[in-house]
Specification:
By secondary structure, the chain is α/β, with parallel strands linked by helices. It contains 8 helices and 6 strands; from the N terminus they run H-E-H-E-H-E-H-E-H-E-H-E-H-H.
Length: 177
């Protein structure tokens, strides 16, 4: 499997984020057991077949029980299932392995603050999604990081560093080399 090849090649030199959108819960559990950083999105069954909240809580609970690592939940329209903020807060409070959230939904800039205000200490990381397109408003709203895949990390890191240190003006300036 490609994931196994990548993990073997990288070894312990770098953190590796694995994303799972597999609809088989057992497969997701097996991947979670590999012990690396893990991003889980709702299973994609097609546009017209969506899992309901009780089914998702059951699925996520089974994965959390098996996992030995923290799991980042991807809340994205791509999955066909959009989690409400109250669902994510409940998830974080009831299943501490789920305390990081990547929010990729319409009007995402309001979500990090809503999530951290409602979830308190159970929410360790509300992340900006959407390839960092809305990163500044998301950081302003309480996002703690961005999930831009491999898109320009060398340019985005200074933005987050400046913003974290309260230097929003510097964070908003373009990076010139």
């Amino acid at each position: 499997m490609l994931v196994d090849l990548c993990l073997t090649h990288v070894g312990s030199r770098k953190a590796v984020m694995i994303t799972c959108k597999q609809f088989r819960t057992q497969f997701a559990i097996e991947r979670a057991l590999c012990g690396r950083a893990w991003m889980l999105m709702p299973p994609y069954h097609g546009v017209s077949l969506n899992a309901d909240a009780p089914s998702m809580l059951d699925r996520l609970g089974r994965i959390a029980d098996a996992a030995k690592i923290s799991i980042l939940v991807l809340n994205a329209l791509l999955s066909g299932v959009t989690f409400t903020m109250s669902f994510l807060v409940r998830l974080a409070r009831e299943m501490p392995r789920f305390s990081y959230f990547n929010v990729e939904v319409p009007f995402a800039a309001a979500k990090p603050r809503t999530l951290t205000d409602a979830g308190g200490e159970a929410i360790l990381g509300p992340f900006d999604g959407e390839e960092a397109i809305t990163m500044m408003p998301d950081l302003d709203a309480g996002a703690s990081a961005t999930m831009p895949c491999a898109l320009l990390p060398d340019l985005l890191r200074p933005v987050i560093d400046h913003h974290t240190r309260g230097r929003r003006r510097e964070a908003a300036l373009p990076v010139v080399n």
